Amino acid sequence: MTESQLEPEHLRAVIARELTGARQRTALLTDSVDEADLVRQHSPLMSPLVWDLAHIANQEELWLLREVGGRDSMHPEIDPLYDAFEHPRSERPTLPLLAPGEARAYGHEVRGRVLDLLDRASFTGTRLLGDGFAFGMIAQHEVQHDETMLITHQIRGGAPVLSAPSPAPAPADAFRLPAEVLVPGGAFTMGTSTEPWALDNERPAHTVEVAPFYLDTTPVTSGAYIEFIDSGGYDDPRWWTGAGWEHRQQARLTAPLYWQRDGGQQSGQWTRRVFGRQEPVRPDEPVLHVSWYEADAYARWAGRRLPTEAEWEKAARFDPATGLTRRYPWGNADPAASLANLGQVFLRPAPAGSYPGGAAPCGARQLIGDVWEWTSSDFGPYPGFEAWPYKEYSEVFFGPEYKVLRGGSFGVSPVACRSTFRNWDYPIRRQIFAGFRTARSATAELA
Ligand SMILES: [Fe+2]
Asked: At 69, which helix (H) or strand (E)?
């Protein structure tokens, strides 16, 4: 959001639009499968879709109707069922959850009351209300669960239920792009203290010194990743960290998740399952569904490394012409369909080199949207971090066991995507819409 959008009447309209858009996406994801599919657990890594559905409503009730509106709990007996910290995902199917019809009715009732509250909200008086933060947080929460539910759709077996057009082919200039771009060294402003709906882990803005480095112009493609596979990358412990190699052996990793090679032949065609459809792997698309360990091994094999989180953000935001830090690679305007592949418009990343209008000042493309990008960094607090509005949003996850991902994927809605937005996950995780790009230091060369 920009300054002018913070005028109360404009803010009210933006909030209504974001809440409605999120609910349309939730409906698409939950109305497209039958009741059996809604209550089934498709993977121990995921909740049944019907849990997400009622959890979205429960968080909306908790933060907007109770915290902001001062109401009592509508159904105190179900609150513990939908507390993500009380029940891990694997346990959720055993709970006495609301049935699909009940979950929908609950969500509908909460939303009606929230829209009434929004009509008379003043956006002042408390920190939760300021700039409509609580509403923005809840809109982001719902679309984050939409992405989670989209992951469940990719995991589920059976006939495809989602469909979408393919992104446009890469523009003609994609084939002439340099493999890497130079990001100049020096200080830049990382994080934000001004973005109204930024979450606690993105705050506060602070100065970070970054040495000059080269970054891949686009995310690593499936075609490039096949070269890593074909040259025995999965069988050579030199490319893997100790923990990565151990995991690679234990989990018997040989290719990205959902990939298979026709007939199991060394030279056969790679195919992958995409939301229930088996199709040839497209070599020009960013590789998807790789773990941090695989991304890190690929980078070593290529003689490179993963970028740090600070390097990634500097590439995405820093404008050497002005010395200023932008909200997005393309400038300060909100995302648009011509700038980035976001919002589940497509069910896949766009070919590498797409979205020239969304390029960063350094020339890198697709930093926002398409695939989440693994960084080399552990998830930790910025200097001056303050947990807000609750510790369980970020603080309890800080530590070396989680790696940071940046930039969002085709499954992330614009309201929850910024150049400051931080995602985190375990280095073994592959079901998320994650890829990566590689980097190398430029210091030695410039010295
Ligand atoms: Fe949640």
From this structure: none
Separation of 229 CA from ligand 1 center, angstroms?
36
* Beta pairing partners, 180: 216
The gap from C-alpha 222 to its chain's centroid, in whole angstroms, comes to 19
Whether this prediction's pTM lies above 0.70 is answered by yes
- CA of 247 from ligand 1 middle (Å) equals 28
CA distances from 95 to 66, 87, 253, 414 (A): 24, 9, 33, 33
CA gap 182, 440 in Å, rounded: 10
Q: Are 168 and 285 in contact (CB under 8 A)?
A: no
The tokens for 251 are 């989990």
Instruction: Give Cα 349 distance to the centre of its chain.
Output: 13
Cβ distance 221 to 353 under 8 Å? no
CB 327 within 8 A of CB 198: no
pLDDT single digits (tens) 390-425: 998 999 999 999 999 999 999 999 999 999 999 999
Distance 395 CA to ligand 1 centre (A): 15
| Distance of CA 206 from the midpoint of ligand 1 (Å) | 28
Report the alpha-carbon distance of residue 413 to residue 335 in Å, rounded.
10
List, for residues 237-268, the tens digit of each pLDDT value.
Answer: 999 999 999 999 999 999 999 999 987 666 78
Ligand 1 centroid – CA 425 distance (Å): 15
How many whole angstroms from 295 Cα to the centroid of ligand 1?
27
Q: Which pLDDT band holds residue 75 (cuts at 50, 70, 90)?
A: very high
| pLDDT surpassing 50 at residue 447 | no
Query: What is the number of other CB atoms lying within 10 angstroms of the CB of residue 206?
Result: 14
Question: Could you tell me the distance, in angstroms and rounded to a whole number, from the CA of residue 134 to the centre of ligand 1?
Answer: 14
CA–centroid distance, 393 to ligand 1, in Å, is 9
Rounded mean pLDDT of 79-107?
93
Distance from Cα 14 to the centre of ligand 1, integer Å: 22
Task: Determine the Cα–Cα distance for residues 230 and 252; give it in Å rounded to an integer.
Answer: 16
pLDDT tens per residue across span 108-160: 999 999 999 999 999 999 999 999 999 999 999 999 999 999 999 999 988 99
CA of 225 to the centre of ligand 1 (A): 33
**106 membership: H or E segment, kind and range:** helix 100-120
